[in-house]
Design a protein that fits this description.
Blueprint lengths: L4 E5 L5 H11 L3 E5 L24 H12 L4 E5 L8 H5 L4 E3 L5 H14 L3 E7 L2 E7 L7 H4 L3 H4 L8 H20 L8 E6 L4 E6 L14
Parallel strand pairs: 1-2, 1-4, 2-3, 4-5
Antiparallel strand pairs: 5-6, 6-7, 7-8
């Protein structure tokens, strides 16, 4: 585990518990990328932060908290936005990529990087009282665009979320990352793991690989 490396685009609701468990498990190198600052409205679900952190960069605070948890691993942070110009230097040379971004365009850009570079990627998200997780290991797997073909049209603007849903999704996502690094267990490849936190239901929703997907289709 200590030789594993993970880069996370984002350090918000689902990433807070996810990153905490990765650091606690002893993942050797973690990079946190987030240009946003902590706000009071974040604190119902972004459990790495407190009222004392309001106004500070999330990436900086997250790195600080995780170093206190496990000082024996390497944790770096970046407060720049990922762009087409810097994405190679920001995300390259990591074992696992935690997909994220501040909107659908950036998320699809990160997804495209993972597809093009055959980098194992874990998607973790939450909205309303639902959590979602899936994993893409290589070009045989469906990508983010296959899973959410309406992403650019449907995911703009804030979405209400039940705080515990982000925690449950984050823990499931951490479990996926650790299984990738250890080479053990079944991964959520080719299906979306969905948890409904009001009904206590867990589903496996198949994700068909779209041969015409603009991100990972046959023409790419």
């Amino acid at each position: 585990m200590s030789s594993g490396s993970v880069v996370s685009v984002g350090a918000g609701g689902v990433k807070s518990p996810l990153l905490y468990y990765l650091a606690a498990a002893g993942v050797g190198k973690i990079k946190i990328i987030d240009f946003d600052r902590v706000e009071l409205s974040n604190l119902n679900r972004q459990i790495l932060y407190t009222t004392n952190d309001i106004g500070r960069y999330k990436a900086e605070v997250a790195a600080e908290k995780l170093r206190m948890l496990n000082p024996d691993i390497t944790i770096k942070f970046c407060t720049e936005r990922v762009t087409n110009e810097n994405i190679d230097s920001m995300l390259g040379n990591f074992d696992v990529l935690l997909e994220g971004g501040d909107g659908p365009d950036q998320r699809l850009m990160v997804n495209q990087f993972a597809v093009d570079n055959q980098c194992p990627m874990v998607h973790v998200s939450a909205q309303y009282a639902y959590g979602y997780v899936f994993t893409m290991i290589n070009k045989e797997d469906p990508c983010l665009n296959c899973a959410f073909p309406d992403l650019p049209a449907s995911r703009k603007g804030p979405v209400p979320v039940w705080g515990p849903a982000t925690g449950i999704a984050g823990v499931i996502g951490a479990n996926e990352v650790l299984k990738i690094l250890l080479g053990k267990g079944e991964l959520a490849r080719g299906y979306l793991m969905s948890c409904s936190n009001f009904q206590n239901d867990y589903y496996r929703l198949p994700i068909p690989k779209d041969p015409h997907c603009p991100s990972c289709g046959a023409g790419k």
